[in-house]
Structures are given as C-alpha cells and as structure tokens.
Write a structure and sequence with these properties.
Radius of gyration: 26 Å
CATH class of the largest domain: Alpha Beta
CATH superfamily of the largest domain: Aldehyde oxidase/xanthine dehydrogenase, molybdopterin binding domain
Largest sheet: 4 strands, mixed
Shape: globular
Distance between the termini: 39 Å
Strand order of the largest sheet: 4-14-15-16
Number of strands: 16
Structural class: alpha+beta
Order of helices and strands: HEEHEHHHHEEEHEHEEEHEEEEEHE
Strand content: 15-25%
Number of helices: 10
CATH architecture of the largest domain: 2-Layer Sandwich
Helix content: 25-40%
Mean pLDDT: 97
C-alpha cells in the first residue's frame, strides 16, 4: 500500500490466517497459598506470566485484567499479585473475549481446588467459605468495595436446581463401580467487572432523528458483530418513544455521524451506547412534551407516551400525528446524545481505585465422563444460572451465555495452540486445531437467567452486561 499509494486488500487462506493473526494470551500461573484446616484462605501470592508475542499490542491491559480477576468471587485477606507480559518469538497476541479475565479466574479456581484437596473437603464447600461478604470481607485486591454481591444466592439457587448434592453422591457410587469410565462434577462461580479499565474509554455518543412519518433513524458508536447490540439499542429508543421496534432504523456505525467512538468491548456496548441513545431520545421527548403541553394547554404531567400514540389531557393522537404537528411548529426533531460512566477511576501506579462500575455474576455446574484409557470425554450435563440485571433482551442474553460456555469449553479442552521451537504455529487448520462441534455440546444443557436481580447502579433500564 505504501509503495503503490493505494489501498490493498489481502485474502489469506485459512492456514495463513490462523498463523498470522493474534490469539488469546496463554498464561503460566504460579502461586503460593496459605489456609487453615477448615479451608479458609488466609493469603495468596500470584504470578501471571503471559505469552505476548513479538509486540506489545494490548498485552499490558490484558495482563492487568487478569490481575483484576485473580480473586474471582473470593476474598483474599492478604494478596500479592503481579503479571509478567513476556516478549516471545511468536505471533503478537491480542484482545479476545474476556480480555484476560478468564485466565485470572482460572488461577483463582485452581487455588480453591488445591485447598479443597489438601483439607479433604468438597470444593464447593471451600468456594462458599471464601466468597466475598456483603457488609465485611468485601474489598478487592485493587481496593474497590464490592457493593452488589449476589453470588451467595446465585450459587445457592443453582446448587438446588441442578441437584448438586444428590448427583455428587451418585457419581461417587458410579466411580467406585466403573473401572475405566470416570465421572466428575464441579460447580464454579464467576464475578466479572464491567467497564474499560482505561477510564477515558467509558463514554459513548448517539444520533437520533425523528421523521415526519413517525419513523426514527438511530446511529451510535457501537459495532454490531452478531452479539445483538443494534437490536438492544434500538429497543431502548423504541421504548422511550413507545413505538414499534420496526419504526426504528439503525444505520451502520460511522464516525461521520458519531465521532470519537470507543471500542465495542469490555462488555460495555449496551451500557454505553444504550445510555447515549436514551439520552438523545429523551431530549427529543422532552421537546415534544413541552410542545404538546403548550399547544393543548395541559400540564406537562398530562402528556403521556403510550404504545404508538400520545395521550394529551383527555385525548389521544397517533405518535406520527404529534411528530407532524411538532414539525409544522418548527420543533427540533433531532438530538445528539452522550453518556459517560460515573463513579469510576483507576490509578495504575498505586494499584487502587474503582475500575468497574458494577459486577456481573453467574455460576455453572458441569458433569463429565472421561475414558481414562483414551482421554476421550463427554459433557453429560451443564446447568448455568447467570444474572443480567433487568435484561434488555432475554433471548439475546441467553444466546450469549450459551455461546460463551461453548467457547470456553473449547478453549479449556480441545483448542490447543502448539508452537515449535522456532515460534511457528503448527496447529493452524481445522485438522489440528479442534473447535467444538454442535455434537460436543452438553447432552443436557440448561441455561437460565435469574429473574430477580437488577443492576445496583442506574444503568440503562437497570440491565447488566
């Protein structure tokens, strides 16, 4: 492109693509842990060493987020955690779903498993012993107070609904009588911090136009990549105006309409862009309310937006009719919205602050069968209970949880990246890099969104990422 002064498009084949592109950072986690005879953890010392590749890329923030999640849902009374981003002769690793968080949590869960084995107790019992508290034992290693802790109830509900205790006894009896096929059962929690740890990224803009036929044009700074962001933000706007979703037209993200957009990442796309779009819609709605109150000589509180219509005093008119009247009265029907996440701050030099606006919680219980002769395994059953606050779209959120589990299952079981001594990737095709198939999903797969929580902070409709 530099030589010919023109744009160049490259279409590598699958092998070259897998060799050249950045991967999720693999970590070597070293730790020392102190605990008492009951399994109460007294202190942890972590070292997270990450393969970063030949350039820095986003390895610094990724390894930082691994440290942010080295506690997962557990209170460490004393903790020392550090990362080592390693320069290696391999492809430059980069951002990937979870952004270091899952690697940090795996380290925490390994500690729990080791302690449980050492004291001879069920790992779930050790997990519950070491959960964050609500009024005490609630300060993270980075000095943020956990104010929205609901992990105790999440785990209790899942433990009951998946019949954990009975199934554990059944598995123990099965293993005692099965020579080669062994089964295992684990229930693990998750606490994931929501926000960019680089505070300045936690902002978003949106542009909303209302046309004289009552239709709405929406543009915002988020990128749709199959996660349902466009639909969620359109729902927010439709809800503000009380119009049908098909009346909201979403156009592709462009800095020509909304400038200085943040990355659609950190699980913040709906939070940031939904709030910005809501802000724009409310500006227009405020103008319409003032206009209707003045035109029809009624108090502002007697102007109510109802499904596809507006009640003004004792009469109702179609939403499109109100828009046409406002246009004729020269009321501005366009607005630029903006949102910045409040309360967050982070001092990296001191290693303290409030990097996350809130936390999202969940738990999963999985049962496996393993052939001890061949290593072949089958996921017999998985039960997941996750909370998304007051979900903006339960169907989308369920799909995200299901997909996230399968992706994580592949990451931790079959998707092995193998480099030779010269730093060349040897697992660079579907024949050697095994992603999960539809047939690899759990035989029984129960995914539920908790219907009782709502965000403790004033997020968009009290939803969570």
């Amino acid at each position: 492109a530099k030589k010919h002064h023109r744009a160049v498009k490259i279409r590598p084949d699958r092998d070259d693509d897998m060799i050249a592109t950045g991967k999720r950072h693999d970590f070597h986690v070293d730790y020392e842990v102190g605990f008492d005879d009951e399994g109460n953890i007294l202190g942890v010392d972590f070292m997270f060493a990450a393969r970063c590749g030949f350039s820095a890329d986003l390895s610094g923030p990724v390894t930082d987020r691994a440290l942010f999640h080295c506690d997962n849902t557990y209170f460490w009374p004393a903790v020392h955690a550090q990362s080592a981003p390693l320069y290696t002769n391999t492809v430059s690793n980069t951002a990937f779903r979870g952004f270091g968080g899952p690697q940090g949590m795996v380290g925490a869960e390994r500690v729990i498993e080791e302690v449980a084995f050492a004291v001879g107790k069920d790992p779930l019992e050790i997990r519950k012993k070491n959960f964050y508290g609500t009024s005490d034992r609630n300060v993270t290693p980075y000095h943020q107070t956990v104010e929205d802790n609901i992990i105790h109830r999440i785990v209790a509900e899942l433990e009951a609904s998946c019949d954990y205790a009975r199934r554990r006894r059944t598995i123990e009896a099965f293993n005692a009588n099965s020579r080669f096929i062994k089964r295992g059962l684990a229930l693990t929690p998750v606490k994931f911090g929501i926000s960019f740890t680089a505070t300045h990224y936690n902002q978003a803009g949106a542009l909303v136009h209302v046309y004289t036929d009552g239709s709405v044009h929406l543009n915002h700074g988020g990128t749709e990549m199959g996660q349902g962001l466009y639909v969620k933000v359109a729902q927010v706007v439709a809800e503000e105006f009380q119009i049908d979703l098909n009346q909201v037209k979403i156009t592709a993200t462009t800095t020509g309409k909304v400038p200085n957009t943040s990355a659609t990442a950190a699980s913040s796309g709906s939070d940031l862009n939904g709030m910005a779009a809501q802000n724009a819609a409310r500006q227009i709605k405020e103008r319409l309310t003032n206009f209707a109150a003045e035109k029809y000589q009624v108090p502002r509180d007697q102007v109510l937006f109802l499904p596809n219509r507006v009640r003004i005093g004792n009469q109702e008119i179609a939403f499109a009719d109100l828009i046409r009247q406002a246009y004729m009265a020269r009321i501005q029907l366009s607005a630029a919205g903006f949102y910045k996440t409040p309360r967050i701050h982070w001092d990296r030099d001191k290693g303290e602050g409030r990097p996350f606006y809130y936390f999202a919680y969940g738990a999963a219980c999985s049962e496996l069968s393993v052939d001890t002769l061949t290593g072949e395994y089958v996921v017999e059953r998985t039960d997941i209970l996750h909370e998304t606050g007051r979900s903006l779209n339960r169907a989308i959120d369920l799909g995200q949880v299901e997909g996230g589990f399968i992706q994580g299952m592949g990451w931790l079981t079959t998707e092995e990246l193998w480099w030779d001594e010269k730093g060349r990737l040897r697992t660079h095709a579907p024949s050697t890099y095994k992603i999960p198939l539809a047939s690899d999903r759990p035989k029984i797969f129960n995914v539920t969104l908790a219907d009782w929580p709502e965000a403790s902070e004033p997020t968009v409709h009290r939803s969570k990422a």
